[in-house]
């Protein structure tokens, strides 16, 4: 697996438009990652294998997104000590509140760092992963600081009608 320290996993192809927001952030910050479909319900053996090998494969952070009965992030956190950042994917039936509660309410001992519902949460998951990796990577820390500064700089002082 080489230099890949971030794994982005998601329960379904249908989660990719959301999870791509995390990938886009990692691309902007030149952080290599892998993206895989790993479903807690449809491919449980794949989930188990991914969790079992995560440390040996050199992963430092796993970003896990799922919708509805979103067990993927929690199950992954139960299988590996690699920190798991959970992204609740927005659903049609319950607007992602189902995903949020499924990911957030972990029992003591097996934490998932839960982000906001949907695209903003996925982007923030990428930034959270970057912040964790930047603790031990000064070049990345500088790229992240620059990214944050340019976001701040892009915010106008006053509102406009356009
Ligand atoms: C979950 O079920 C996935 O994470 C996805 O958000 C949701 C719906 O999946 P599809 O029916 O679109 O494949 O497992």
TrEMBL record:
Keywords: Isomerase, Lyase, Purine biosynthesis. It catalyses: 5-carboxyamino-1-(5-phospho-D-ribosyl)imidazole + H(+) = 5-amino-1-(5-phospho-D-ribosyl)imidazole-4-carboxylate. Pfam families: AIRC (PF00731). GO terms for molecular function: 5-(carboxyamino)imidazole ribonucleotide mutase activity; phosphoribosylaminoimidazole carboxylase activity. InterPro entries: PurE_ClassI, PurE_dom, PurE_prokaryotes. It is an enzyme of class 5 (isomerase). SUPFAM superfamilies: N5-CAIR mutase (phosphoribosylaminoimidazole carboxylase, PurE). Residues 4-155 form the PurE domain. Substrate binds at residues 12, 15, 42. Its EC number is 5.4.99.18. SMART domains: AIRC. It comes from the Bacteria. Pathway: Purine metabolism; IMP biosynthesis via de novo pathway; 5-amino-1-(5-phospho-D-ribosyl)imidazole-4-carboxylate from 5-amino-1-(5-phospho-D-ribosyl)imidazole (N5-CAIR route): step 2/2. Belongs to the AIR carboxylase family. Class I subfamily. Catalyzes the conversion of N5-carboxyaminoimidazole ribonucleotide (N5-CAIR) to 4-carboxy-5-aminoimidazole ribonucleotide (CAIR). HAMAP family: PurE_classI. This is N5-carboxyaminoimidazole ribonucleotide mutase. It comes from Aliisedimentitalea scapharcae. The gene is purE.
